[in-house]
């Protein structure tokens, strides 16, 4: 059975963050950021970490610096790449400002790795038997493109892998058309009928089904219960556009 929990905010270096305590025992420090504690003005207020949404570059750099400090690394070692809703993997050791992909893998090399979201599903993958860990950006396109399969190919023993699913848009707020729904017909719990030809899509249900198919033990999967609905705590592109991006950030502190 998967573990369900509600993340509890803490103040770290002046930021309100949501620690992912279930991975601490594996020597991983990880948290989810929220909207607060940054320098960006509305509509990106205030801890926007996305450099592609129309916010001033200086604001984004300062916000990322604050997150780097909170996770315990120099800002140059906070790895964020250009996300493209695909399945490509980038090694943190090889990442540059031009790197594109939706998975970042690190092997305990003192980097902090992060994915940015505003309704998509942020995922953390941790290996209990090695220093390897990964972060995954999973919207419907990424899940349809098997981004989780791509991420888990980086881990040798799936029975030693632990996965955390972070805050994302809920099925109640995620209406999709038939061109999206057709990719997830047959996935248990993924779709609920809505008005006309519309459906409500549950990204977490899709991810859970895929993880099971990929051989991840149910008890090794933890699901955060918070959603991005309403854009009050976390940014939500569905609720307010344009908007900023929040992050799931992780680093290995004990290799």
CATH homologous superfamily identity:
CNF1/YfiH-like putative cysteine hydrolases
Task: Provide the CATH topology.
Answer: CNF1/YfiH-like putative cysteine hydrolases
Low-confidence stretches: none
Query: CATH class, anyone?
Result: Alpha Beta
Kindly report the average pLDDT value.
97
Architecture (CATH level 2) name: 4-Layer Sandwich
Order of strands in the sheet with the most strands? 1-15-11-9-10-7-6
**Gross geometry:** globular
Order of helices and strands: EEEEHEEEEEEHHEEHEEHEE
Number of helices: 5
Describe, in plain words, how this protein is organized in 3D.
- The protein is of the alpha+beta class and 255 residues long.
- It has one domain (3-169, 225-252): CNF1/YfiH-like putative cysteine hydrolases, CATH 3.60.140.
- The chain has five helices and 16 strands.
- The chain has helices spanning 57-71, 140-144, 147-152, 178-181, 203-213, and strands spanning 3-5, 10-12, 15-19, 28-33, 78-79, 89-91, 103-106, 112-117, 121-127, 133-138, 161-165, 175-176, 191-193, 199-201, 221-224, 246-252.
- The strands form three sheets. A seven-stranded mixed β-sheet has the order 1-15-11-9-10-7-6. It has a six-stranded mixed β-sheet with strand order 2-3-4-16-8-5.
- The longest helix has 15 residues, at 57-71.
- The chain is globular and about 50 Å long.
């Amino acid at each position: 059975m998967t573990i369900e929990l509600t993340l509890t905010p803490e103040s770290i270096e002046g930021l309100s963050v949501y620690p992912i305590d279930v991975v601490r025992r594996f020597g991983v420090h990880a948290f989810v950021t929220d909207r607060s504690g940054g320098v960006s003005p509305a509509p990106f207020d205030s801890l926007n970490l996305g450099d592609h949404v129309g916010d001033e570059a200086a604001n984004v750099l300062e916000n990322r610096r604050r997150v780097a400090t909170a996770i315990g690394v120099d800002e140059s070692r906070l790895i964020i790449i250009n996300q493209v809703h695909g399945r490509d993997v980038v090694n943190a050791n090889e990442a540059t400002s031009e790197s594109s992909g939706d998975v970042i893998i690190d092997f305990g090399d003192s980097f902090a790795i992060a994915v940015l979201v505003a309704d998509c599903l942020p995922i953390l993958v941790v290996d209990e038997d090695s220093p390897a860990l990964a972060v995954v950006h999973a919207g419907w396109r990424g899940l349809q493109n098997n981004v989780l399969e791509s991420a888990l190919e980086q881990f040798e023993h799936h029975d030693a892998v632990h996965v955390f699913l972070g805050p994302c848009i809920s099925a109640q707020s995620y209406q999709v058309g038939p061109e999206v729904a057709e990719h997830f017909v047959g996935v248990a719990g993924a779709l609920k009928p809505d008005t006309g030809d519309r459906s409500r899509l549950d990204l977490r249900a899709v991810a859970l089904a895929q993880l099971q198919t990929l051989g991840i033990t149910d008890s090794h999967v933890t699901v955060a219960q918070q959603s991005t609905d309403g854009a009050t705590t976390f940014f939500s592109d569905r609720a307010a556009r344009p908007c900023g991006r929040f992050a799931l950030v992780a680093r290995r502190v004990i290799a």
